[in-house]
Structure formats: structure tokens, C-alpha cells
Amino acid sequence: MRDRKRARELAAEFHRKGDPTGWFEVLYREAEEGKSNIPWADYHPTPHLVSFWMEHPQETAGKSALVTGCGLGDDAEQLAAWGFRTTAFDISETAIRNTRKRVPNSKVEYQAATLLEPPKVWRGQFDFVFEANTLQVLPAALRPQATKNIAAFLRPGGRLLVIARRREPSDPIGEMPWPLTRAEISAFTEHGLEEVTFDIVPDVNEPEVRRFRVLFQMRDSATQQQ
Ligand SMILES: C[S@@+](CC[C@H](N)C(=O)[O-])C[C@H]1O[C@@H](n2cnc3c(N)ncnc32)[C@H](O)[C@@H]1O
Predict the structure, then answer these.
(1) What is the C-alpha radius of gyration for the chain, rounded to an integer number of angstroms?
(2) pLDDT-based confidence at 205, cuts 50/70/90?
(3) What is the 221 CA–ligand 1 centroid distance (Å)?
(4) Which helix (H) or strand (E) holds 110?
(5) Whose CA is nearest to atom 12 of ligand 1?
(6) Contact 76, 44 (CB under 8 A)
(7) Residue 116 C-alpha to ligand 1 middle, in angstroms?
(8) The predicted structure's pLDDT at residue 2
(9) pTM of the model
């Protein structure tokens, strides 16, 4: 079982202060100093990304990918190894600095940025976007903006793979990480995306937890949302 105690304390403290994304940098800094752990740092690519790829290999030659909330970069490195020209970002400057240090010869372009106000130059630029587990650490009120911004990264015809914890609307919201409902996942379709594949998969470490794993595609004719 992952140790989420400190992450949950910080999440609660920053929510009380009205700064729901301020705790990530603090947690990464504490981890750098050896005082805390990063509960999601596995140091290997997300297993449900790898199994998805085995079942549905995607075209990568000459294509670009973006990883949202990339943490310590394992998924970004995997996408680059599969052949994408890869960009990856995280809100935590410490996470980005440590990732660059950990993979000094990386081909991935790592950048500190926030999903809630991403660089405008990324709009409509990517053939493939990978989002795993960032939406579920944002409070529900911030997810619609994050969802819209993720969709806006895609070129017409580009694909988005999303992985997130799942809950029924009647389930309690519980503690961070806060699972998403089907409606929150389907909200991508309000921004020009169509569902291509839809899976509910058991978490690898916590088999009682279920995850959405959904591939979307941006309609060719979709005009990018504002
Ligand atoms: C639960 S972790 C998941 C990390 C990685 N995607 C994975 O699946 O292992 C969420 C990550 O998103 C980052 N994050 C949180 N809010 C963000 C935001 N608004 N913009 C960019 N990154 C964010 C956190 O710093 C953290 O590294």
C-alpha cells in the first residue's frame, strides 16, 4: 500500500488556504530533502500505458507527444523511446529539475508549467497527449478547465489517452486522490474529442481500485476551443 499520509496532509492544508495546487511543489521539495515520499513515483512507466500500447500500437514516426503532470518523467521517457518527439510538463519545478538530473541525456523536452494555464504555443500542436492521474489530484471544480486545456493541445486527428481512478457518482469522494466519474471522463467529448476505446481496468497495486483508460481522438473538422 502506498504511503499517502504526508501528501494528504499537504493537500488538505493547501485546500484550506485556497491554493489547491500549491502542495505539489512542497511535497517534491520535501522528498528531495529526504523528509517525505512521493506516493506516485514508481520509477517505471505506467503499466496501463504499456499494456495499452501492446494492444493498440500507435504511429509515432515524425509525430509529437505531450505528457501532462509528468512527475519524474517515466511515461515521457517511454513515449520518447517509442519514437515520439516528446514534451512533458509538471507544475512542480523541483520535479522537473530532478527529472532532468535523473535522465541527463533525455530526448524529452521537460518544462515546468500548469495545466490550468498552459503555454499558448502548445495549442493544437500535438499528435498524442498522455494524461495519467493529474485530473484526480485536482479538486472537481478545477477539472472542467483542465479537461478543456488538455483537449486543446491536440491537432485535428490527434489522440489523447487518459488514465484516472474511477468512482460511481453515488460513491463518497473520499481522500486525495479523488476518483473521477464517467461524466467527468466524458467531458472531453464536449471539446471536439470522440471516444475510440474505453476500458475499465483494475489498478496494478490496489486491485480493488478501478481505473478508466480511455482513448479519444480529435475530430478532423473540430475547431479548437477558446
Ligand atoms: C498523481 S501525480 C501523477 C504523476 C504521473 N502522471 C503518474 O501517473 O505517475 C500528479 C502530477 O501532476 C502534477 N500536477 C498537479 N497539478 C498540476 C497542474 N495544474 N499542472 C501540471 N501538473 C500538475 C503533480 O505535481 C504531480 O506530479
Answers:
(1) 17
(2) confident
(3) 30
(4) strand 109-112
(5) 69
(6) no
(7) 12
(8) 79
(9) 0.96
Element holding 12 (H helix, E strand) = helix 5-16
Conformational region of residue 83, where left means phi above 0, alpha means psi within -120 to 50, and beta covers everything else: left
pLDDT digits (tens, 9 = 90+) for 13-69: 999 999 999 999 999 999 999 999 999 999 999 999 999 999 999 999 999 999 999
All three cell numbers of 68, joined, read 501532462
Q: Is 134 in the pocket of ligand 1 (CB under 6 A)?
A: yes
Collapsed DSSP state (helix, strand, coil) of residue 219 = coil
Q: Is 98 in the pocket of ligand 1 (CB under 6 A)?
A: no
Instruction: Tell me the β-bridge partners of 215.
Output: 161, 197
Q: Is the CB of 20 under 6 A from ligand 1?
A: no
Locate the ligand 1 atom nearest the alpha carbon of residue 142 and give its number: 19
Taking the centre of ligand 1 as the mean of its atom positions, its distance from the CA of residue 186, in whole angstroms, is 20
- Residue 223 pLDDT level (bands cut at 50, 70, 90): very low
Task: Print the SS3 string covering 12-46.
Answer: HHHHHCCCCCCHHHHHHHHHHCCCCCCCCCCCCCC
Check if 132 has its Cβ closer than 6 Å to any atom of ligand 1: yes
Position 224 pLDDT exceeds 50: no
* Chain mean position to CA 138: 11
Largest CA-CA distance found in the chain, in angstroms, rounded: 50
